[in-house]
Amino acid sequence: MLRISICILLTLSSFACKSNKAERKASLKIAFIADAHLQDIFAKFEDNNYKGIQNPVTGEYANIRTMNAQLHSTRIFNENYFAFLEALNDISKRGIKQVVLPGDFSDDGQPVHVRGLRKILDEYSKKYGMSFFVTTGNHDVVKPFAQEALKTDFLGKDGKEQIISSSKNNLPKHENQLEPVITADIKNWGYKETLNEMQAFGFFPQKNYLYWETPFSDYNYESYNFEKALAESDLEKRTYSVKNTNLFLPDASYLVEPVKGVWLLAIDANAYVPNEKLSGLPNDPHDFSGASIGYNNVLIYKKHLIDWVKKVSTEAKQKGKTLIAFSHYPMVDFNDDASPELKLLFGSNKMQLSRVPNEEVAQIFADAGIQIHFGGHMHINDTGVRTTAKGNTLFNIQTPSLAAYMPAYKILTIHPNTVLEVETVVMDKVLNFNSLFPFYNEEYTHLQQIKSPSIWNREILNTKDYKDFTKWHLKELVRLRFLPEDFPLDISVSLLKLSGADLAYINKNNAEVDAAFKNNSLTIKDFESWTGFDMIFDFYRLKNADELAIPEIGTNRLKQYQIVCGQLEKSSNEKLVLWGKIFLKTMNSKPSNHFKIDLKTNQIMRINP
Description:
This protein is α/β, with parallel strands linked by helices and 609 residues long. The protein is built from 21 helices and 21 strands.
């Protein structure tokens, strides 16, 4: 009898070992969608019967922003609605159940759009068993407390701009305007309202979570239960004191274990800087600046997060958990280390350089124990790597936006042998992406009639797919905004009037350039086929999409840019020298499309398609 019992125990032990081994062999996939900027273009206001304008082709009503507004913004406002649904459908087809949204899930935290997003996430949760984990971005909680707001650039009747405001008291003076629409659904929600609406998506504990905590929790992993977590999750208990004031603000950070062995660390890096002079009113949103700077201000105003991150990462190692951090803002320079040259050429207040994290950010969070961090905010595809003097390495993975070029999301595969795999999925084909184009035809006609000085190129309405549409968006953005606002006039004039051939021979080094042509199997005709504008546009393509842009630009053209930049670096014009250095750095980046990271060796390896 004893012998039989021993055999049973051995059999059960063997089965347990096999089960654990099988568990270790299993890989987990997590999808990351950053900067969705979702606007529910088909939503209805709760306090106003206005339903938008009627599509002249389909008859369907929609409430959208103008094409002119889109082409002056770093994000698309309307078509990304369809791209978001396409991405979720693609994720569901792949059988991925865990989905992370690292901020800017909405566009300015407007109630009508946050509600719309919540309904979409609820639908996919019920239909496909997906779990969503969200953190706040600067466009989700514009200020820590709710405030009145308006937009002047919705598309109205006859192609005109339509003002929609949350209050009659903040209407601008506007000639030839349509009657303003007043609805509380367009105000900017604060933390309280936004987190309450999105509570099921990580911000508050759920019964199916294996573990959940905040920087302010007073329990530990061993004593955890849902009731304790729920009691500690009240937003009033999740506040920090603002430096040099008597004010307290909410912090939406949390740690969750949705699947055994994996910890998702959601860092609320929205750091609101208080005004020098405060109003003295309770919960006054106007006492603070916006939060677009990110981690540079976190180090000043939210130092409690650093201690919490250290605690979490230490416990993760002790308990054998794979720790994946995410937040809205980058932790590492996202300009391929060209930020010093960019500041010299463009100025520190241009090219979104104020958003570049200081080197101290990466050093502090790497030494705090973060190895992998997924960020957004910049609408770019990029990988940044920093190793500290203590030998700790941080990999910052920038997730592209679905609302910009190149529209994509990331898939993280957590392999059991401490190897992580990251794949970038481009949303090139999007159902109904061009269904709003009839609206824009009416807008274009109106702009022609009023002889708008900054009319957009109608060719964008001939785009064949969503990826092409975002490429046109970027091209028009460069022409209508980036060139006039960012580029020094002398450098833009110098580049725009020259062809590639002019740039190649700019130093009169004819023999040297001819030799470079020959070594790269190039001819003068190759260089005559493009202009300085093409070079500037391709710079932005590389800056935004990184490796994803290479197939579109082509290796042949990139060879030409390399030769031209080599000549620009030898120029007597200091600004052209900087431009050449910047372009070369932008061409040479870490793997960002499909790659693996070994957490033991801190090596990053490109996976070729």
